[in-house]
Amino acid sequence: MTSPRTRITKAVIPAAGLGTRFLPATKATPKEMLPVVDKPAIQYVVEEAVAAGLSDVLMVTGRNKRPLEDHFDRNYELEQVLRDKGDDGKLARVQESSDLATMHYVRQGDPRGLGHAVLCAAPHVGDQPFAVLLGDDLIDPRDPLLARMLQVREERGGSVIALLEVDPSSIHLYGAAAASPTSDGDVVRVSDLVEKPSAERAPSNLAIIGRYVLDPAVFDVLRRTQPGRGGEIQLTDALQALSADESLGGPVHGVVFGGRRYDTGDRGDYLRAIVRLACEREDLGPEFREWLRGYVTEEM
Length: 300
Known about the structure:
Order of helices and strands: EEEHEHHHEHHEEHEEEEHHEEHH
Largest sheet: 9 strands, mixed
Number of helices: 11
Number of domains: 2
Distance between the termini: 58 Å
Mean pLDDT: 92
CATH class of the largest domain: Alpha Beta
């Protein structure tokens, strides 16, 4: 187990999924590049990592994911066109994504689950603690969940997962945590994890959402983890092993999140995320809210 005081600088973003829920839009476009208002979803995730102090970002990609690399790279031709036009506003927005962080990429190859995607990051991460951010979960920047998780890791060591209280009827969509309170009201000690349990088997209604701060000991556990549901290596299984035996890599704690989260992995939630974020934009919100009120009134 590494020292809790070890400064965390690296983020891992798994982005190898096929995005089949959004076909045919994702036939030739990575789901991570689908726009949320006027930025691709993946940019919000990278911005969150950077805001929490993580300057080194590794994306675990797959086939047909080249647009991700292009988006975070420079586009000199486009920049020059905008510069010649004197369009400094658009030029700044184009350059923003390429200046966010130091970006790295590795191919997952066979899509063998989230645990396998995390394991692909081992050569880059080495023996340092790191964060994992899943692209389907967008966390509102006014609710700094990842920064809080990094603080808990520094104070308590081991690994930290993000938890959300959900309706028991929907716990089968998530990993579920058995947990006990700590001296911090938003922090729990995790003693067990179950991947996508039925409501009857779920240890609680605390669902794992897509933010993790992991001790590098997780890599050794993942290497020994047998494929589970769907023949995939589950990160939840590795975390369950860590929670059951502290000697493997320290304790597992959870931060119970009560802020604003936007799920872009579901078509309906994706649309709701766009509407919410557009409504809250200073440049778009006033006019858009007025139109939306009129539209809803007409449809009622």
